[in-house]
Amino acid sequence: MGQRKASRDGDRKVGRRALLIGGTVAAAGSAVLARDELARLWWRTPGVEKPREAGAVDYKGARWVAASDANWRRADRPDDFGIDMVIVHVTQGSFDSAVKAFRDPGHKAATHYIVRQDGHVTQMIRELDVAYHAGNRDYNERSVGIEHEGFVDRPHDLTDEMYEASARLTARICARYDIPVDREHIIGHVEVPGTDHTDPGPHWDWDRYMRLVRRARTTPA
Q1: What is the residue-averaged pLDDT of the chain?
Q2: Which pTM value belongs to this model?
Q3: Of 93, 22, 102, whose CA–CA distance to 65 is shortest?
Q4: Cα(200)–Cα(162) distance, rounded to whole angstroms?
């Protein structure tokens, strides 16, 4: 979340690929491509929703608490938007305050996960959906966002349990989408173009975190 509430991503009824369907089909004369795209997008028709399993989580051991529908956009990642990034946030508040904010439709922002100081992981948005967390539409579409309970100016908030739990979560996300474990693909909110946020802040130990992610990446789940 950083030092200011993130701005809403802004809903887009169809993805970038869908907007190109007409031109691509016309140019290529490919009815097969059109059928493939329409099959993927049928559920975006008003009144139609893709079937979801209530309470399902993408990370074993996570607890499901649903974010407000206003704080994310339904999608079918990685089919419609490839996932190639994890973005690290710090809540600038307590775990409970972050959950409350993400369940508030007026907040207009939420991450996929929140990691508590004791290492507990809560999932609030499915990874296949686009969370409004980065303040940049392109980065939202291609990333998974992880919040960490605490304040950027309080290094003691960044506990061993939090680092280790978050590293295991990030390692599993990287494995699932074949994301390289490096600082080009695992970044802080402050590194997102156009953002005015400062999280995860100067006390976040990137060397330690990346070392833990690499170790977890090579450890059987």
Answers
A1: 85
A2: 0.80
A3: 102
A4: 13
What percent of the chain is modeled with pLDDT above 90? Answer: 73
Neighbours of 165 (CB within 10 A): 24
Q: How confident is the model at residue 155 (pLDDT cuts 50, 70, 90)?
A: very high
Q: Which two tokens stand for residue 100?
A: 């409350």
Q: Tell me how crowded residue 187 is: count the other CB atoms within 10 A of its CB.
A: 19
Structure tokens that stand for 136 in this block = 């940049």
Tell whether the model's pLDDT for residue 188 goes beyond 80. Answer: yes
